[in-house]
Amino acid sequence: MALPMRNVLFLTVLLLLRTTCEAQLVKHRTYLQISNFMAKKLTVHCKSKDDDIGVKILAPQASFQFSFRPNFWNSTLYFCQFIWEGGSHWFDIYVQTRDQHACVKNCNWFVTKTGSGVCRLIEGEPHLVDMCFPWNDASSHH
């Protein structure tokens, strides 16, 4: 009788470990929003290695949102092409190692009024800028 009880205890512990590990592997969903703060329309095309979000055309002051689950390996990358009259640039809009702590659930970005780069807002503070970034180098577009 002791042997079957030991097996039941072992299987119970194993099942608990499996459930705990699976919970750690499934990351929360991140919502990424991009807003156009320029005075002209902005065409945005975002994608990752595996997922093409598609082309969105944003009027001035308009925005769009998409969501995803960051991966376990901390290598999630989404990049976008931004096109407007007189300009076209690429930017890595979500780099997991850069953004995972600043954008826990919501990652809000806007293209600056001058088109000189993109800025990330502080999560939970829709009017406070966290950081602004320049566009990717022309040689590093995806």
Written description of the protein model:
- With 142 residues, the protein is of the alpha+beta class.
- The protein has one domain (27-140): Immunoglobulin-like.
- 20% of the residues lie in helices and 41% in strands.
- The protein contains 2 helices and 9 strands; from the N terminus they run αββββββαβββ.
- It has helices at residues 2-25, 96-99, and strands at residues 30-36, 42-47, 52-58, 63-68, 77-84, 87-95, 106-111, 118-121, 129-133.
- A 5-stranded mixed β-sheet has the order 4-1-7-8-9, with no helix packed on it. A 4-stranded antiparallel β-sheet has the order 3-2-5-6.
- Strand 7 and strand 8 (118-121) form a beta hairpin.
- The longest helix is centred in the first third of the chain and has 24 residues, at 2-25.
- The protein starts with a helix and ends in a 9-residue tail after the last strand.
- The model is unreliable at 19-24 (pLDDT under 50).
Key attributes of the depicted protein:
single chain; 142 residues; alpha+beta; Immunoglobulin-like; 5-stranded mixed β-sheet; 4-stranded antiparallel β-sheet; 9 strands; Self-incomp_S1; self-incompatibility; secreted
How helix-rich are the residues, as a percent range?
A: 10-25%
Query: How many beta strands in the DSSP annotation?
Result: 9
Shape: elongated
The largest pleated sheet is described as: 5 strands, mixed
Helices and strands, in N-to-C order?
HEEEEEEHEEE
Give the number of domains: 1
Q: Roughly how many Å apart are the termini?
A: 63 Å
Question: The CATH topology, please?
Answer: Immunoglobulin-like
In the sheet with the most strands, the strands line up as: 4-1-7-8-9
- Which runs of at least 5 residues are low in confidence (pLDDT < 50)? 19-24
**CATH architectural designation:** Sandwich
Give the CATH class: Mainly Beta
Strand content: 35-45%
Task: Report the average pLDDT across residues.
Answer: 87
What is the structural class?
A: alpha+beta
- Supply the number of helical segments: 2
Radius of gyration: 21 Å
CATH superfamily (homologous) name: Domain of unknown function DUF5300
Family: Belongs to the plant self-incompatibility (S1) protein family.
Subcellular location: Secreted
Main location: secreted
Organism: Rubus argutus
